[in-house]
Design brief:
198 residues, mainly beta, Histone H3 K4-specific methyltransferase SET7/9 N-terminal domain, 15-stranded antiparallel beta sheet
Length: 198
């Protein structure tokens, strides 16, 4: 009898103890506005918030925040028509990359940041080919590369302290055709390179 009573007491203590401990949750929690429209959906994985979807009053998706270990790692922004407009990638809470999209879904621009400072911008044509790359050092433009529609390099603008110092023009076969030299941003001279065939 004493053993049954001890087991019963231990079981009651265990139930009370376990009821005070929350088991990690998985699932969704929906929040609604006073007018009844969906405002937000929080997604939990193992008790940790992993995604937050925010909705406009008209019911269209506005933002998706993706979290890793409870910290925002990606933010997706949507237009009212439902198309993806922008993706921000974050590292340790700081934006490291921004992707902008056209309404037709094609990538328009990638902006890369290092420690919150712009370091590179890539611009794309509607057909998806790279049109231009801007390289920045400490947020100041140092080089701009422009590409033809076939992907070949067309020209490179070189900057010193943000001021144009040189322009390199390239032939369609990728060989250097001409170098224009600038001094303090003002054209100084050109050097034309001969297209030599052997």
């Amino acid at each position: 009898m004493k053993t049954k009573l001890t087991n019963l007491i231990n079981s009651i203590i265990l139930v009370v103890f376990l009821s005070g401990c929350e088991v990690p949750q998985n699932g969704k929690k929906e929040s609604y506005r006073e007018n009844g429209t969906l405002e937000q959906i929080d997604v939990l994985e193992n008790g940790v918030l992993s995604k937050v979807e925010s909705y406009r009053e008209d019911g269209t998706l506005e933002l998706i925040n993706v979290l890793e270990n409870g910290v925002v790692s990606k933010v997706e922004s949507y237009r009212k028509n439902g198309t993806l407009e922008q993706i921000d990638v974050l590292e340790k809470g700081v934006v490291s990359k921004v992707e902008l999209y056209r309404e037709d879904g094609t990538l328009e621009l990638i902006n890369v940041l290092e420690n919150g400072v712009q370091s590179k911008v890539e611009s794309y044509r509607e057909d998806g080919t790279l049109e231009q790359t801007d390289v920045l050092e400490n947020g100041v433009q140092s080089k701009v590369e422009s590409y033809r529609e076939d992907g070949t390099l067309e020209l490179i603008n070189v900057f010193e302290n943000g001021v144009l110092s040189k322009v390199e023009l390239y032939r369609e076969d990728g060989t250097l055709e001409q170098i224009d030299v600038y001094e303090n941003g003002t054209y100084k001279n050109s050097k034309v390179l001969m297209d030599v065939e052997y």
